[in-house]
Amino acid sequence: MNRKISQAGVDLIKSFEGCRLTAYKPVPTEEFYTIGWGHYGKDITKGMTITQAKADSMLVTDLAKYEAYVNDPAYVPVTAQLNQNQFDTLTSFCYNCGPGNLRTLCKGRTIAQIAQSITKYDKSSGTVLAGLVRRRKAELDLFNKTVIAQEAPKEDETLELTKYQWTTLSTQVKALLDAGTINDSTWLDKIDKKTLTTSELAWLSFIVSKK
């Protein structure tokens, strides 16, 4: 199963992106507008407004896209060697700098060499920005933070997930139901009540990977 960003990574991204419900341009020369938790693209137009729920939903969708880049050996050759904090860091980096810079950062480098290079990405149009300096420092701190080993869950133990992870699961299951890949809506009930077990999650992950 492809890995997902943890709550620590989500909190880091949120702390730097902030959330704005009206479209804006952080830099006047930007081609497109930004909205929500840093969502940027041609789908955002001048004067556009969204609800907080929509902003949160867009974040879940956007994170899944950037997680996919970090999970892809074509972008991160050492992806299989990353611990959770390192995976979270590179997802935050990709969210902010894009997949092209992620590939450049990681290509031909070991994990230690990636850590040495993260803070170099602190400029916009050749100018060092204080906000980017702070973000790269926070990302490097997370990248180097030791992951505390946890006991593996028992096969049918009820899952203890973060709010973001439950939301992601709910979004994916709704998509499977809408597509007709599955037709049992009780999956959503289990997610809403947080009674999903590890074996059930494994089955859902298999279905998601095959859709």
Structure description:
The chain has 211 residues and is mainly alpha-helical. It folds into two domains: 7-144, Lysozyme (Orthogonal Bundle), CATH 1.10.530.40; 163-210, no CATH class. It has helices at 7-17, 52-71, 84-97, 99-106, 111-117, 130-144, 163-179, 186-193, 198-210, and strands spanning 20-24, 33-36, 39-41, 123-124, 127-128. It has a three-stranded antiparallel sheet with strand order 1-2-3. It has a two-stranded antiparallel ribbon with strand order 4-5. A hairpin with an 8-residue loop joins strand 1 (20-24) and strand 2 (33-36). The longest helix has 20 residues, at 52-71. The radius of gyration is 18 Å and the shape is globular. The two termini are 13 Å apart. Mean pLDDT is 87; it is low at 151-155.
